[in-house]
UniProtKB/TrEMBL annotation:
Residues 1-80 form the GST N-terminal domain. Pfam families: GST_C_2, GST_N. Transmembrane segments: none annotated. InterPro entries: Glutathione-S-Trfase_C-like, Glutathione-S-Trfase_C_sf, Glutathione_S-Trfase, Glutathione_S-Trfase_N, Thioredoxin-like_sf. This is Glutathione S-transferase family protein. PROSITE patterns: GST_CTER, GST_NTER.
Amino acid sequence: MKLLGRLASINVRKVMWTAAQLDLDLEREDWGPGFRSPKEPEYLALNPNGLIPVLIDGDFVLWESNSICRYLAGKFGATTLLPTEPQSRARVEQWMDWQGGELNNSWRVAFMALLRGQPATPEAIEASVTNWNRHMTLLDAQLARTGAYVTGDDFTLADVVLGLSAQRWKNAPITRAELPAVDAWLQRLSTRPGFADYVGNGMA
């Protein structure tokens, strides 16, 4: 089993952190800026979107990082990370989908301008920061309700994907809202296997 993608990618790191929770020695091969281009025909044959990461498991190929995390949890029977009971699983997947859609879209303009140097007006950056903080406040309220992890007492894949997103928010050069539940949750996450390597490693 092999993962294609450079470690600087937050989407690669969420898969690698999932693998760490599973005590899985997942081989990784560098692709992306500074390494081999995912626009090469060899890579596009695996993922026509030309994005990282891609998981190769024998003759099975899978792209989309959240789907890869779900696949690994299912393959190795990690029912705490991804429950089999329909309502519990739906809660985890709801927050994973929220991360991949709503939360990611909120920070895109500010992050790409401030950390990746893409052009954007000050007004657009300010609006994105405001939206980013608003979405993180929603997460803070959820964590205040559960008092532990995103969906309740157990650490799940929702914590994996949102933990990386929250760390990005903490590292970004922006004015942040005061979110005590998020801060306490990140402290809890810091004790998990692989956190230092894939979340708290200074990479945004």
